[in-house]
Write a structure and sequence with these properties.
three-stranded antiparallel sheet, six-stranded antiparallel sheet, globular, 14 strands
Length: 321
């Protein structure tokens, strides 16, 4: 027979919970599961942070309440911090803040709600429309923060690995550092970033058969360096991938814990596994110059993105891009 309890009796269960240990925690610490007991009987308590309020007055009050702000790093227009949502000086940081200042119209579009479309980019569309688009974006100065890191002007204290490889623009050097979205302490959400030193590879589209040996060596060195720096990690606990379309057009590789919650940035149509990319390059017909520029790629775009409005929407509507 099911016991009937009043609302007040049910609510009183939470204060009576006695903690034994933390059982689990999600990647950002937003959800925890605690093992304990209530009146000597075992109990599991899961707590999850509520969603942020959306009304203007509460958001204004939230911003005003930020305290104990500590800068984690800054590069060009990008800044990131830890902060506390409580005014007390003793309150531990419970927020990670990313600031883009000054931001552009493209940043605003990227972070605004928008519909999403799947598109197929053929080699012909890439050469005729997407490659020129990439060229324009590179010429707008959006890669200044990347050059700052590669050339040793900023974030050098964060560089985990610097492998110069060959010399010159077409050398094989690369470096690895924490991704700005990682809090640098929660291992279940480990997220590192590898930047290549060479500037002639803008995206996975530029990868050819002649790059396979370099890609395999870079993969091995990235895995070796990660498990050496974080002994609690094994190689088979790490996932390496590249984005297409990437946020910026300088080739880079993401190294993450396989437990990292797979949001939009790891979804099909955005993330391409490095091992799968290497395998695909090896099987493409042709000589050393054959590669990812010779295949069709299917991925998703936001409806506010320029590639959708200027290239793929006109193609869909049988108009000239």
């Amino acid at each position: 027979m099911v016991e009937t309890r009043t609302i007040s009796e049910i609510e009183e269960l939470i204060p009576r919970f006695k903690l034994e240990k933390l059982l689990n925690q999600d990647q950002g610490g937003r959800r925890i599961t605690l093992l304990g007991s209530i009146d000597s009987s075992p109990a599991l308590l899961t707590a999850e942070r509520a969603a942020f309020p959306s009304d203007r007055s509460t958001l204004t009050a939230f911003h005003a309440s930020l305290a104990n702000i500590k800068n984690l790093g800054a590069n060009d227009i990008y800044h990131w911090y830890l902060a506390s949502s409580q005014a007390s000086r003793a309150a531990p940081p419970d927020l990670k803040l990313n600031l883009i200042y000054p931001c552009t119209e493209q940043h605003v579009k990227k972070y605004s709600p928008q519909g999403v479309r799947m598109v197929t980019e053929t080699p012909k569309i890439y050469r005729a429309h997407v490659r020129p688009y990439m060229q324009r974006k590179r010429e707008e100065g959006r890669l200044n923060w990347v050059w700052n890191i590669i050339e040793g002007r900023t974030e050098q204290e964060d560089v985990i690995l610097r492998d110069h490889g060959g010399k010159g623009e077409d050398g094989e050097g690369f470096l690895m550092l924490p991704d700005l979205n990682w809090d640098r302490k929660t291992m279940s959400s480990l997220h590192l970033l590898a930047l290549v030193e060479r500037r002639d590879i803008w995206s996975l589209r530029d990868l050819k058969k002649s790059h396979v040996v370099w890609l395999k060596r870079m993969r091995k060195n990235l895995l070796d360096a990660t498990v050496k720096l974080y002994p609690e990690m094994d190689e088979d606990m790490l996932k390496l991938y590249v984005h297409y379309q990437p946020t910026y057009y300088h080739f880079h590789i993401h190294i993450v814990n396989v437990r990292l919650e797979a949001g939009a940035t790891q979804a099909t149509g955005k993330a391409f596994g490095l091992e799968n990319v290497i395998s695909q390059i090896e099987t493409v017909a042709g000589g050393e110059e054959a590669g990812m520029g010779d295949v069709s790629l299917t991925y998703f775009l936001g409806e506010a993105s320029e590639l959708w409005t200027e290239v793929f929407l006109p193609i869909k509507e049988a108009r000239k891009p």
